[in-house]
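User: quick one, fold this
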Amino acid sequence: MKASAICKIIALTASVSMMMSGCMNAVNLKDIAVVEGMAVDTAEDKGSVELTVQTLNAGKSASNGEAPSGNMTLNVSNKGDSIVDAVSLMPKKLSKDLFFGQTKIIVLSRSTAENAIKDNMDYFVRATDSRSDVAICMSQGEAKKILESKENDSRVPGENMLYLMKTGEEAGVSAYITTGEALNLYADKTSDLYLPVLKPDEKDKSVQTAGIGIFNGDKLACILNDEEASGFLILKDLTKRLSVEFNDSRLGKIGVEFSNISVKNHTGVENSSIVFYSRIKASVVINEIEKGSTTMLEKADLERIKEDARKELVSRCSKAFYACRSAGSDCLRIGDCVARDLPQTYDACQENWKDYYSGVKFAPSAKVEFKKLSNNSQRY
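Assistant:
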C-alpha cells in the first residue's frame, strides 16, 4: 500500500476518534449553570462566607416562538467556610455543575474588602475555575444587593454593570479592573490594590458608581469621592474625557468638558525628598455659561476660563494624590516609577517603601487648550 494512502487512513481514523470522543464528553447545557456574576459577603456566622451566584435561567423561554425578553438570570446564595467551600457546595443546591466560562463580574462586600481581602486574593490565585479577565469591584454595602439589581429589567444585569464600569472609567467617574490586574497590584512589592465601588440606586432598579476604594496592603484604606476619583483616573492615564463645573466671578457657573486627556508621570529627587511629577494635557470645550453665551465671550473671558479649567485639573489630581498618600495606599504605583527613574533610590527604600512614600512630594502641572467644534464654529 502506498505511503500516501496509509497517511490518509491514519488521518481519517484520528478524525473519527476525535469526533466520537467529543460526543462522548459533550455536556448538555441543561446540566450546567452558566455563571454570569458572583457576590462575596461575610456571613453572620463568624469566619464563614456567603456566596451568591447569578446564573442564566435556561428554563426561561418566550411564548409564540419570540425571543426571550426581560431578566434571564437566577440568583442563588450559599454559605461555606471559604469561597472554595461555598463554590464546591453550590452544585448540590442548584442540582447542576457551575460553568465559569462566561462570568462577567465579581462583587465583594465592603465588609469582605475591609476584613478578608487576602482570602479572596488567595482564591483567585489558586482556584482552577478562576479567570483573570473577570471584572472585579466592591459594593458600598452587601455584595449580593448589587447582583439582585434588575438593571431596569435587562436580560443579563451583569452585562450592564460591566458597561457601567468601563464607560465610567472613560468618563472619569469610576474604574474598571480585572481579577488579573488586581492580583498583579496585590502581589507587587510596593503597589496597592484599588477597586471601583458600586451601590444600588434609591429605587433599587439599577446600580450606580460610588467612588473608588483604595487599599493599604490587605486592608481597605478609604473610598475616594467623585473629585478624588476623577483625579486618580487622570493620574493613571485611564480617562480621556471629563465634565466639570466651576464658578466664574463674572459669568457665574461654567460647565466645561475636557477631552484628549493625557498624562506623563516621572519621579525625581529634590532636597533629599522624592518628588512625583505629573504633566497633564487636555483639550477643553465650554458647554454651559450661567450668565451669557459662548458667542459673546471676550478674549479676557476665554483666558480666564481656560486658566480656571487648568486649575480644576490640577486641583482634582492633587486631591487624589494626597488622599492616597494620607491613606498609605500606593495604588498610583509611585514606587514603580521610582524603580524605573531612580533605581539606586529604589534599592535603598524598597524594603521600607511605605515609610518613604509618606514623604513623597507632588508636583503637578497642566496645559489646556480650547477645542473648536468646527472650523466655522464660534463656540469653544
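User: anything notable?
Assistant: The two ends are 81 Å apart (CA to CA).
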